[in-house]
Design brief:
It contains 3 helices and 6 strands; from the N terminus they run E-E-E-H-E-E-H-H-E. By secondary structure, it is of the alpha+beta class. The protein has 2 domains: about 45 residues; about 100 residues, 2-Layer Sandwich (GMP Synthetase, Chain A, domain 3). Helix 1 packs across helix 2. The radius of gyration is 18 Å and the shape is globular.
Length: about 140
């Protein structure tokens, strides 16, 4: 069942705590740590939120930097999450670290691209930001 405007993702149990996820035909292995009955044969589901935030903002930032004609040859976004002590143990603090590589990259362009992504364009950060304190920093490496 698919309704207009709805997006779909699904999981099917493989064995133990290992599930096979599917998003539009792309397979994602999900599993729990051994201490929680899994084998560690896939990503922990909650950590996919961090990955989603990293991918979402990375696509925004690279797009904005390209529009600003910055000579970027590489971009890495690392997302660090700290979880609350009480259940449901949501992320209560998230830090994004942007590592930009390129020639003569303007720090002001990087700052503005990050600001636009985090405050206007990236829905993943907007969602995470409803439960977590979000902070970010960036590094520029000359290529």
């Amino acid at each position: 069942m698919k309704s207009e405007g709805w997006e779909r993702a699904s999981v099917v149990l493989d064995e133990g705590m290992h599930f096979i996820g599917d998003i539009d035909g792309f397979r994602i292995d999900l599993d729990a740590r051994e201490s929680f009955g899994g084998r560690g044969a896939g990503a922990e589901p909650l950590r996919l939120l961090l990955l989603g935030a990293a991918g979402c903002t990375a696509m925004d930032v690279i797009s904005i930097l390209r529009k600003k004609r910055q000579e970027v040859s590489g971009l890495e976004v690392e997302v660090l999450g700290s979880r609350a002590k009480e259940h449901p143990r949501v992320y209560d603090r998230v830090e994004l670290v942007y590592r930009v590589r390129g020639r003569d990259v303007d720090p002001r362009a990087v700052e503005r691209a990050i600001e636009l992504s985090e405050t206007r364009y990236c829905p993943a950060i907007a969602m995470v930001g409803r439960t977590a304190e979000v902070s970010s920093r960036y590094e520029i490496e000359e290529a």
